[in-house]
Amino acid sequence: MQLVMHPNLVLSGQFCAVLCTRLCTLLKADSCCWQGATVYPLGEGAPTELSNGQDIAFEEAAYELGPGGQGDYDSEVLRLGYSSLSTPYSTIDYNMATGKR
Fold first, then answer.
1. Which of 17, 31, 74, 83 is disulfide-compatible with 13, CB 3.0–4.6 A?
2. Which residue in 67, 58, 60, 62 sits closest to 91, CA to CA?
3. Which pLDDT does position 1 carry in this prediction?
4. How many distinct structural domains can be found in the chain?
5. Which residues have C-beta within 8 Å of that of residue 12, sequence separation ≥ 6?
6. pLDDT score for 74
7. pLDDT tens readout for residues 8-58
8. In terms of residue numbers, what domain contains 36?
9. Beta carbons within 8 Å of 69's beta carbon, 6+ residues apart
10. Which residues, in sequence order, are CB contacts of 66 under 8 Å at separation 6+?
């Protein structure tokens, strides 16, 4: 089974954040059901794989998520744009080191 992802990547000096709006199998187009964000710590040197990711939890089942304007490259803060049917567009600052908003 081959997967097709449509991610947004946000890189900092110590982290890589992957924001996915859909995850589909090529065999079943109706299986598009996952969206969210995962933060991966980066080690020394060039990364060869992403592992030990931490998912960012959102309380609503359906929402729109995208990268916001990012600050310094070495910042631990990931800025996200978030909205849903019940939540107007808002900006979330997520600390990738601590997991706090």
1. 74
2. 67
3. 37
4. 1
5. 70, 73, 74, 75, 76, 78, 96
6. 86
7. 788 888 888 888 765 444 444 454 556 788 898 987 776 677 788 899 988
8. 3-43+52-95
9. 79
10. 8, 19, 80, 81
